[in-house]
Sequence to fold (637 residues):
Amino acid sequence: MEVIHLSLLDWVIIILYFGFVIGLGWYLKKFADTKEDFFLAGRRNSIWVCSIAFVSANLGALEILGWTGGTVKYGMFVSHFYWIGAIPAMIFLGLYMMPFYYSSRIHSIPGYLLLRFDEKTRLLNAVSFAVMTVLMSGINLYLMALVFHTILGWNWDLCMWVSAAAVASYIALGGLLSAILTETLQFFLIWFGLFLVSILGIIDVGGFGGLFEGLPERMTSLWATAGNPGNNPMGVTWYGIAIGLGFVLSFGYWTTDFLIVQRAFTAKNLQTARLTPIVASFFKMALPFIVVVAGLVAYKLTAAGNLALERDAAGNITNADSALPLLIARYYPSGLVGLGITALLAGFMAGQAGNTSAFNTVFTYDIYKAAIKKDATDSHLVFVGRLITIVGILLSVVTAYVAKSFPTIMDYIQAIFSWVNAPLFATMLLGMFWKRTTSAGAFWGLIAGMLASFSLFLAFKFKWFSCEWYYYLTFMPSSKALCPQVPSDMTLNLWQAAWAWIVCFILTIVISLFTKPKSDEELQGLVKGLTPDPDLEKVPLYKRPLTWAVVSLAVLIFLNIYFW
Amino acid sequence: MENTKQMIPVWFWVGIMMLIYGILVTGAGIYYLINPPQSYAAKWTNPNLWWGIIMLVVGVIFMFLGRIKKESN
Fold:
């Protein structure tokens, strides 16, 4: 199904972007010669660069396409992933965790685990993170080829290799600096390339009032239909959203995923690093105005028979992910089409670049320098970083081809998030805020958490237990009458992460109580209570992280009540 | 560790990209004034024209913000 046709002008706009980012890579090469520059972008970035890069590292084209399609299926519930599922975690990272990350002058999250715990905990996390980034980058590549093949009829292989080559060249040349610069460009491209879809859509359906008019309540509410999983299209409960998404998944992702946290490490000082996720939270909160609005417009147009989304016999929409491309085709004349497609392309490439720059840092510092060549010089490390960038990209191309031949493998790879991040958040929380946490506790707790998550994933997938247990394990015993129908994938995913967190948290505490902790001297600057409180510095009110955190939370609460 | 090499700020790059795209999109908008396009929305509003001009202006502002100053941070 080819939905968009490109004119010469559209092609010019797309090709200009490729030329632009590769040219930037060449320009940045001379600023990326030392290891601080290549891996940390020189620790010189201002709050605006850091926060835009921070939110862009998370904001891929996949997410925009996927959640616009998601809105067609789930309605306003998608906003939970942008609001309660992100903002509290981002604020927590800025206020409470960033001081330990930034002040210990580490290059990576595994680097923190080394200082706080020991070598094996670091290696465990470094290896699992490196594997995760390569696989995610491969999925990103696969889906990109899929999207452009479907909507534009582009050649599959050419699409993958051209974008992989572009990303490999600009990251190998400019390192994290290149990644951050292209993420900043992508942020503006996404707003200028895609926000217009929502604006034209709103005009088309008769203004904001017209958007919500005539839609069923389950499509337009955030919490009003969350009391009973049967009443909302996602099939979740309010406590599933609050605990599974709002606490475990979102804190696990936003506070420990090195790919995004790395952006704050490039800040010029601690105060900027702490403000990074807090300022970024405002950008994050604004995104539903593209994603959810476009999704609701698509839903409305489809219901009125004005948009060609396909339905199966039961009336369910089968190709919801094409919602945004279809809207682009409907509203954009040529020129703007090129801009919209460039925004999506840039989003895919930035997602891959983010994974790659995080991968090369973790591989170089936490695997290569830690376990292979301990006495590596700075210039040698930069060389390894450049080389491993290309190796990482090649591995992701391989992953993309594997995903192409076995599409079901995608489920497994996506489940990795909850294997790696959810338990790690328990380890980090205990490590930073409870000085009694021991290295043995952290290591075995983390392994047990990862195993718990993985085995629960397999158990849910292959139905290792009876249907009632699905409802007990997801804390919805009153809904077990719904058997043999099992809870929605979303619910299973949320609680699988929650269980991984609980197992890691409890086991880490228990083992720590029976093993010997590190001395206070060793933990200076790494643990709460043994680190100077950054809030005691004298800074004007409008520059304090706490001030903006309060504003951000107030906006979050307002949005949730307004769209209740 | 002061670097003698001065880097062009990121805002300049954002600005120049927006300016070029703004010129191209506005150009298409002017063309559509004379030859109305087939696309649905463009029949009732010429989005290329006004959106292109917005991009152009934003591009110039960002290039101004991103000019190299003597004491750059």
